[in-house]
Design a protein that fits this description.
By secondary structure, the chain is of the alpha/beta class.
Length: about 700
């Protein structure tokens, strides 16, 4: 209790006072009280992916993939700060009533910074997308916002799932993800390294699968050599839930729970989400571990609890219950939803003019769905605003809004007694009688998510392909056949095949899983209350046929950095209701010293005030055969009135001009490296879609 001492010194003292049984008990996620030492029970398991989850009412922000589409680390940091405020409010209220149940602690198992390497992965919408740089920058902002910058941690963040983890869901308990040194260090590890070494994330969670033969939660390579060794990680490591049981039951790496305890504990897994560590004392008696191994783990855990101020009074003890889902927090959720929307196509139909459009048909299984707003790992918002409700609220008294479900999300009919396609004719009738159609389709977390989701007709949470469910395909084709001007709103957490929609519909808006206020944000975008500014954090491919085997973890021909085919809608792409021009504002040829700075003048050349996402890509002059074509190395957000200009600068260090070789080593690439700064990638498809050229620079290394 001596606050003059460091947290670690205090933890060592505390652990020295525990019995063996008491120490072992603290390594399970549902750690019991040790009343003689004044230690209350503590449940480590809590979630906060896009709001405090599974603990009742909370502000529900857009799903992580949607937040990533805003391309704004400051915004993500603000969201995380709100989440930790609400987490403290909930913790304070529950603790005052001695309620120390699951989902009520201050250790949040977020963010998920795995790389969304394949659009079929069901949990990809929990991530920040396919790019390591974007993932790292947003992940760092989330950690810093969640943990705060005070003497004590406001909350403890957790980087997961370490490492090389992105499906398949139905094989994750036995799968071995094989990644060579190049892919490991250029794609799968950079975000984890950044969160550990720069953001000082307090916890790291291991993945279910094996990586290159080793179970991730007991991997010497990952946990000892890289995490604790190379990166000098000082926090605690937690297993994914029941992942240690997989060691002996599915991976067949060990033969018993006692052996699994030894493999995990000796390689640095401090905390078990599961029950395997209940065999810790018997593992000790069998000579497989030492008491010193146990002490090391418990010291790590008690250090985190001390950092959280759980044995001291802190400035966070006064966060009131009224902070939960406050007006200010709800407004931030709405603004985040606005910023997340990506306009993929617009032939001029949008924004809708309420003085001209008098009848709107809102059609589709996600039009009035509450579930599609929430994604997974979610809380309960105080109010759900669906797309239909958002349009009804904004349309005004002079605009008639029809609604038709059109189809079930994935079943051929919506009730037991009806014939197939029982909602289709109603939808067509609504379209026939409308001036404009808003067709709201997609998925939700019941068919795109984690292994074991109820009612999941797909493959363990993963998508079998990039197509819409058959029921929705029939609806989409029927709406197209009416010939009415149509806005397709695609509400998914991942890329879909939008080829047909791009050919037949006037506008396409990617709505993601936009949170409790999402329907309001989508309606505002449709009616032009603001101009969409989001960018795709993932590539939208033309079809799943061009994708490599889902089980292949090689990055070749995956994501914008390595793909060979032309994208349907590229990573980094998004339209606006205005236009922007780019011109170099610094010398176009510079020599790299410790760093190089490039600047552009961005001008709003249209008639509408709007936000623009300025993206900076580097293409190295010399590349290995397996290297990326180019890579995102900077992004900034700027809001400009019509006709207004602003100067935007990027400082690029040597790391920006380095590539990873086949041995996993970072190599500075000599020569005249190219830098592109614009509103998207410097590829031909983005140019064709936007008509905007990026500014170009040469950096001599």
């Amino acid at each position: 209790m001596d606050r003059v001492l460091s947290f670690e010194e205090r933890a060592v003292d505390l652990v020295s006072r525990m019995t063996l049984a008491e120490k072992a008990s603290q390594t399970s996620y549902d750690a019991p009280a040790i009343r003689r030492l004044g230690i209350p029970s503590y449940n480590w398991w809590n979630e906060a992916l896009h709001g405090v989850a599974r603990a009742g009412t909370a502000t529900v922000f857009p799903q992580a993939i949607a937040m990533a589409a805003a391309f704004d680390d400051e915004l993500v940091g603000q969201v995380a700060d709100v989440i930790s405020t609400e987490g403290r409010a909930k913790f304070n209220a529950a603790s005052a009533k001695d309620d120390r149940d699951i989902y009520k602690g201050l250790s949040f198992w977020s963010p998920n910074i795995n790389i969304f390497r394949d659009p079929r992965w069901g949990r990809g919408h929990e991530t920040y997308g396919e790019d390591p740089y974007l993932t790292a920058e947003l992940g760092k902002a989330f950690v810093r916002g969640l943990q705060g910058d005070g003497e004590y941690l406001k909350a403890a963040a957790c980087a997961k799932h370490f490492a090389v983890h992105s499906g398949p869901e139905n094989l994750r308990h036995e799968f071995d993800a094989i990644a060579d040194a190049h892919d490991l260090w250029e794609t799968y590890l950079p975000a984890f390294e950044a969160l550990v070494t720069e953001a000082k994330v307090e916890a790291v969670m291991g993945a279910y699968n094996r990586t290159n033969g080793e179970p991730c939660c007991g991997s010497k390579t990952l946990l000892v050599d890289i995490l604790r060794g190379k990166w000098e990680f000082e926090g605690h490591v937690v297993s994914d839930c029941w992942a240690l049981t997989d060691f002996h039951e599915h991976h067949k790496i060990t033969n018993s729970a006692e052996e699994s305890v030894a493999l995990a504990l000796k390689n640095g897994c401090d905390l078990n989400c599961g029950k395997t560590y209940l065999s810790m004392v018997s593992s000790l008696k069998a000579g497989l571990i030492t008491e010193e191994d146990i002490d090391k783990a418990v010291v790590h855990l008690m250090t985190t609890r001390l950092k959280l101020g759980l044995f001291d009074g802190t400035e966070y003890d006064d966060v009131p219950f009224s902070a939960i889902a406050s007006r200010e927090h709800t407004e931030l959720a709405l603004e985040t939803a606005r910023r997340s929307l990506v306009l993929l196509k617009n032939d001029g139909l949008l924004p809708l003019d309420r003085a001209v459009v008098k009848t709107i048909a809102v059609v589709g299984p996600n039009a009035d769905s509450r579930r599609v707003l929430l994604g997974n790992y979610n809380g309960t918002p105080p109010r759900h605003v669906t797309v239909l409700e958002g349009i009804q609220d904004l349309a005004g008294d002079d605009v008639r809004v029809y609604y038709a479900e059109g189809s079930h999300l994935y079943r051929e009919k919506s009730d037991f007694l009806s014939r197939p396609n029982n909602r289709l004719s109603e939808a067509v009738s609504a379209c026939d009688d409308a001036d404009v159609v808003v067709l709201v389709v997609g998925l939700d977390d019941s068919i795109e998510g984690e292994e074991g989701h109820p009612s999941n007709p797909f493959d363990g949470g993963d998508k079998p392909n990039l197509e819409f469910p058959d029921a929705q395909l029939r609806l989409i084709e029927a709406v197209a056949a009416t010939g009415k001007p149509t806005v397709l709103v695609n509400m998914t957490g991942s890329a879909m095949n939008l080829t047909f929609a791009s050919e037949r519909f006037s506008a396409i808006l990617q709505g993601w899983y936009p949170g409790g206020e999402g329907g309001r944000a989508i309606a505002e975008a449709i009616f032009g209350v603001f101009s969409p500014s989001g960018r795709l954090p993932v590539t939208f491919y033309r079809s799943s046929e061009e994708l490599p085997d889902f089980l292949d973890y090689s990055m070749q021909n995956r994501t914008y950095r390595y793909m060979k085919n032309e994208a349907m809608y590229p990573f980094g792409y998004g339209l606006s209701y205005t236009s922007f021009g780019y011109a170099a504002a610094s010398p176009v040829s510079v020599k790299l010293a410790d760093a190089a700075e490039v600047s552009v003048t961005v001008t709003n050349t249209g008639a509408v005030a709007a936000r623009e996402i300025v993206e900076c890509y580097v293409q190295c002059a010399e590349r290995f055969a397996y290297s990326p074509v180019w890579q995102l190395k900077g992004f900034k957000s700027v809001y400009l009135q019509a006709g207004e200009s602003a100067e935007v600068s990027f400082t690029l260090d040597k790391k920006a001009f380095s590539l990873v070789d086949e041995n996993g080593d970072s190599v500075l690439m000599r020569g005249a490296n190219r830098v592109f700064v614009g509103g998207g990638q410097p590829d031909a498809r983005t140019l064709a879609l936007t008509g905007t050229l990026p500014a170009q620079f040469t950096v001599d290394v």
